[in-house]
From TrEMBL:
The lineage of its organism: Eukaryota, Viridiplantae, Streptophyta, Embryophyta, Tracheophyta. Gene3D superfamilies: Medium-chain alcohol dehydrogenases, catalytic domain, NAD(P)-binding Rossmann-like Domain. PROSITE patterns: ADH_ZINC. It comes from Tripterygium wilfordii (Thunder God vine). Its cofactor is Zn(2+). Oxidizes mannitol to mannose. Provides the initial step by which translocated mannitol is committed to central metabolism and, by regulating mannitol pool size, is important in regulating salt tolerance at the cellular level. It catalyses: D-mannitol + NAD(+) = D-mannose + NADH + H(+). This is mannitol dehydrogenase.
Length: 362
């Protein structure tokens, strides 16, 4: 097989790629496949910057292959559909999240959990079934099988809606699955970044009482007044942790860096559930005493299936939930990554691909 990214497929494409673990992104010519009979092609309008993009371009999980075009919160407008496509038509507003293929035959795919398929193809830096590598949404056009296309409701904006395709579903899915979507439940959200701030919005929409757990006291006023959280807890404040001990039904842990599990499980009621969605690059320490007394559950959750992603987006549209975003041009992306590493973003960077990418083409 032709290994050159530029000529591997018939359709020329352009994006920004990282070339090595410095994570610096720069213009990159590559190629995409033609629109197959089950495929949808769309012009990318916006792409969110997930912390996973940052972990990946810097090879923090040790699995990166370069050149790597990140981006899995991708929205745009359909430009071409294959002959068998029924879901959408040219001109429709659509999105693609973290997955672009799965086996579609295993028990997990059959149960709409493509995200737990043993043969998933992630949207970037993943081997596709034809042996080529996937490239993400910091690029001009996307092409994907219609099953992996999410339809955008009319009132859901393509910019502030984009982060829901990863951040949104990643927190919505565990709230539902672990029974934390019940009115009156006390939920904590640990880490108030891209995932965390939408977790607060979904938990409030489910009728929960919400505590934000953050390292930064500076975020308190905004969490309470703007995001609608009920309480705010500074994770380093032992007195506050003590006062909140044993009060929570569930915690969605979105923290991207190594941190203490035991100080979080201590906040749970007996039978409470701590659900990890953040993916720090180093192992977390788990003393048995964190979960055995009180029969607590420590669980994980990874994005969501396609049916649930559509359900999440429709729910968000109905409840006016979008991400709080800072829209940036593509040539700001390296600065945005530095700021994201420091937690300096309210709360998601979204790249204006549609209006800024083409001008950077060499
Ligand atoms: N499981 C999944 O399906 C999934 C999906 C998307 C992202 N992720 C992972 O989730 C994590 C968060 O992603 P994001 O895009 O929201 O990142 P983000 O950088 O926007 O948010 C992370 C937040 O955690 C805060 N934080 C760091 N250390 C903390 C501590 N000790 N206590 C409290 N807060 C702390 C940061 O200040 C930041 O606000 C990343 O590791 C990412 O890779 C997982
Ligand atoms: Zn993501
Ligand atoms: Zn499968």
């Amino acid at each position: 097989m032709d290994k050159s990214p530029e000529t591997r497929h018939p359709v020329p494409a352009f994006g920004w790629a990282a070339r090595d673990p410095s994570g610096q992104l720069s213009p990159f010519n590559f190629s995409r496949r033609e629109t197959g009979e089950d495929d949808v092609r769309f012009k990318v309008s916006y792409c969110g910057i997930c912390h996973t993009d940052l972990h990946c371009i810097k090879n923090e999980w040790g699995s990166a292959n370069y050149p790597l075009i990140p981006g899995h919160e991708i929205t745009g407008v359909v430009t071409e559909v294959g002959s068998k496509v029924k879901k959408v038509k040219v001109g429709d507003k659509v999105g693609v999240g973290c997955l672009v293929r799965s086996c579609r035959t295993c028990e997990h795919c059959a149960n709409d959990y493509e995200n737990y398929c043993p043969k998933p193809v992630f949207t970037y830096d993943a081997p596709d079934y034809d042996g080529t590598v996937t490239y993400g949404g910091y690029s001009d056009y996307m092409v994907a099988n219609e099953h992996f296309i999410i339809k955008f409701p009319d009132n859901m904006p393509l910019d502030a809606g984009a982060p829901l395709l990863c951040a949104g579903i990643t927190v919505y899915s565990p709230l539902k699955y672990f029974g934390l979507d019940v009115p009156g439940t006390h939920i904590a959200v640990a880490g108030l970044g891209g995932l965390g701030h939408v977790a607060v919005k979904f938990a409030k929409a489910f009728g929960a009482k919400v505590t934000v757990i953050s390292t930064s006291p500076k975020k308190k006023q905004e969490a309470l007044e703007h995001l609608g959280a009920d309480y705010f807890l500074v994770s380093s404040d032992q007195d506050q942790l003590k006062a909140a001990k044993g009060t929570m039904d569930g915690i969605i842990d979105t923290i991207s860096a190594p941190h203490s599990i035991v100080s979080l499980t201590g906040l749970l009621k007996p039978h409470g559930k701590l659900v990890l969605v953040g993916l720090p690059e180093k192992p977390l320490e788990l003393p048995a005493f964190a979960v055995v007394p009180g029969r607590k559950t420590l669980a994980g959750s990874n994005i969501g299936g396609l049916k649930e992603t559509q359900e999440m987006l429709d729910f968000a549209a109905k409840h006016n939930i979008t991400s709080d975003i800072e829209v940036i041009p593509i040539d700001y992306v390296n600065t945005a990554m530095e700021r994201l590493a420091k937690g300096d973003v309210r709360y998601r960077f979204v790249i204006d691909i549609g209006n800024t990418l083409a001008a950077t083409k060499p």
